[in-house]
Specification:
The chain has 273 residues and is an alpha/beta fold. It contains 9 helices and 7 strands; from the N terminus they run βαβαβαβαβαβαααβα. It has a 7-stranded parallel beta sheet, with helices on both faces.
C-alpha cells in the first residue's frame, strides 16, 4: 500500500534552509509586558541582540527609559509605552504607538505578573481579584487585541505566555497565584487551536524558581535557602537560562511548536504534587 500525502503537507518553511539563522528575530516587533525588571528586562536585552525591534511596556516608565537607552546604545530599535495591563482602556493607545514607531506586533510576551503568597484562609477576595486581573485577564485582553490586528493584516505571529511551574503543580501558600497561572496555561492551549489557522502560534514558558525582585528577599532567608535545596538541581535558575527556550518560541525556529507549555525549572515540576 502506498502512502499518499496532501501536497500542502509538504509546504516548505524558510527555517529549513538555515536552522541556526532561524533563531534570529530580524524584522520582527516584539512587545514585552512587565519589561522594567527581572525576566522582562532580560528578554528585552536578548531579543534586541537577536535583531528584534523591541517595545517595552510597564507601569514604571522611568525604569523602562533607562533600559531603552541601554538597548539603543547597541543600535537596537526600541520604544517604551506606559501600560497598566489591568486597564483594558490603555491597550489600544499603547498598540497604536508601537505600530507607529516599530510596526505591527509580531511577537507578544505576556510577562507582567504578581504574586501575593498567603494561606488560602488569609487570601482576601481583593487579592484573588488583583492576582487574576494581572496574571490572567490582562493576557486575555492584550492577546485579543494583537490577534485581531494580525488577522486583519493577514500575517502570522507568536504569543508567549509566561506561566509558572506552580500552574502545573501546587504548593502551600500560593492558591491564588497557582490558580491564575493554571488558567493562563489553559488559555494557552485553547488559543493555540483557535489561532493556528491564522498562522499565530500560542505557547507558554513555565519557569521554576528564578531569583527576581519579586522573591529575592525570601530567598535571602533561611527558609528560602532551605527551599532551594528541595529543587532537583539544588539551586534557583539563572535568568539567562530562559533565553534559549524563549527564542525558540518567538522565532521561526519554533515554527512547528504550538500549544506547548515548556517548564524551565530544572525538573522541579516532576516533584510537585
Amino acid at each position: 500500500m502506498s502512502l499518499r500525502l496532501n501536497p500542502s503537507a509538504l509546504r516548505y518553511h524558510p527555517c529549513m534552509s538555515d536552522p541556526i539563522k532561524s533563531f534570529r528575530l530580524d524584522g520582527k516587533t516584539i512587545l514585552i509586558t512587565g519589561a522594567s525588571s527581572g525576566i522582562g528586562a532580560m528578554l528585552a536585552r536578548q531579543f534586541a541582540a537577536a535583531g528584534g525591534r523591541v517595545a517595552l511596556a510597564a507601569r514604571r516608565v522611568e525604569r523602562l527609559q533607562a533600559l531603552a537607552d541601554e538597548l539603543r546604545a547597541t543600535g537596537a530599535a526600541v520604544t517604551t509605552v506606559a501600560l497598566d495591563v489591568t486597564r483594558a482602556d490603555m491597550i489600544a493607545t499603547a498598540l497604536a504607538q508601537i505600530e507607529a514607531e516599530l510596526g505591527i506586533v509580531d511577537v507578544l510576551i505576556n510577562n507582567a505578573g504578581v504574586a501575593q503568597p498567603a494561606s488560602f484562609l488569609k487570601t482576601s477576595a481583593e487579592t484573588l481579584e488583583s492576582t487574576m486581573a494581572t496574571n490572567f485577564t490582562a493576557a486575555w485582553n492584550l492577546t485579543a487585541e494583537i490577534a485581531k490586528r494580525l488577522v486583519a493584516a493577514k500575517r502570522g505571529g507568536s504569543v508567549i505566555n509566561i506561566a509558572s511551574v506552580l500552574g502545573l503543580g501546587v504548593g502551600p501558600g500560593y492558591s491564588a497565584y497557582s490558580a491564575s497561572k493554571a488558567a493562563l496555561i489553559s488559555l494557552t492551549r485553547s488559543l493555540s487551536l483557535e489561532f493556528v489557522r491564522y498562522g499565530i502560534r500560542v505557547n507558554a514558558l513555565a519557569p521554576g524558581w528564578f531569583i527576581t525582585e519579586m522573591n529575592e528577599d525570601y530567598f535571602a532567608t533561611d527558609a528560602g535557602l532551605d527551599y532551594l535545596k528541595r529543587i532537583p538541581p539544588g539551586r534557583a535558575g539563572q535568568l539567562g537560562e530562559l533565553v534559549g527556550p524563549a527564542l525558540l518560541l518567538a522565532s521561526d525556529a519554533g515554527s512547528y511548536v504550538n500549544g506547548v507549555v515548556l517548564p524551565v525549572d530544572g525538573g522541579h515540576h516532576v516533584a510537585l504534587v
